[in-house]
Specification:
By secondary structure, the protein is mainly α. It has one domain. 2% of the residues are buried.
C-alpha cells in the first residue's frame, strides 16, 4: 500500500535525480556533437551515465544518513529518563494544535493574528509530516539500498 508520504518521498527523490540529470545533459549534448565514431560516443555516454548514477547514489546515501541521524536524535529524546526531554516535541505539537483549534472556535485572544495562526499551522504540519515522511523515507531508502 502506497500512502501520501511515500509519494512525497518519491517525488522528492525524483526531483533530485531530475536536477542531476539536468547537470549532465549539456555534457551529453556536447558528446553528440563530437566528430567521432558512434562507438566512441556510446562509450563516453556510458561512462557519463555511470558517473551520474554514482552521484545520485551518493546523494541518496547522504539523505539516508541524514534521516537516520535525525531519527536517532528523536528516538534518544523519546527514550530519555527525563520527562521533559522525552515529551517536549509532542507537548509542543499539542500546544500549537490547541491554539489553532481554540482560535477556530473564537476562544483565543484577538492578539493572535491570522499570520501567527498560519505559522503555527505550518509548524504542526511540518512536525507531523516530517515524522511521517521521515519514517517513509527511511523505509524506502533501506529498500533502495538493499536492491
Amino acid at each position: 500500500m502506497v500512502d501520501k508520504c511515500d509519494i512525497l518521498w518519491y517525488t522528492y527523490c525524483m526531483s533530485i535525480f531530475s536536477f542531476i540529470g539536468k547537470i549532465f545533459k549539456p555534457v551529453a549534448d556536447l558528446v553528440d556533437n563530437l566528430h567521432t565514431s558512434e562507438e566512441e560516443k556510446l562509450e563516453i555516454k556510458s561512462k557519463m551515465m555511470e558517473m551520474q548514477f554514482e552521484f545520485q547514489s551518493k546523494i541518496l546515501d547522504y539523505e539516508t544518513k541524514l534521516m537516520e541521524s535525525k531519527a536517532t536524535i528523536v528516538e534518544s529524546e523519546a527514550k530519555s529518563e527525563h520527562f521533559l526531554t522525552a515529551a517536549w516535541r509532542p507537548i509542543t505539537m499539542l500546544l500549537f494544535t490547541g491554539i489553532i483549534v481554540l482560535r477556530w472556535f473564537g476562544l483565543t485572544d484577538a492578539s493572535i493574528s491570522q499570520e501567527l495562526e498560519l505559522k503555527l499551522f505550518s509548524i504542526v504540519q511540518l512536525g507531523l509530516g516530517g515524522y511521517i515522511v521521515g519514517r517513509s523515507g527511511e523505509k524506502i531508502a533501506k529498500e533502495w539500498r538493499d536492491k
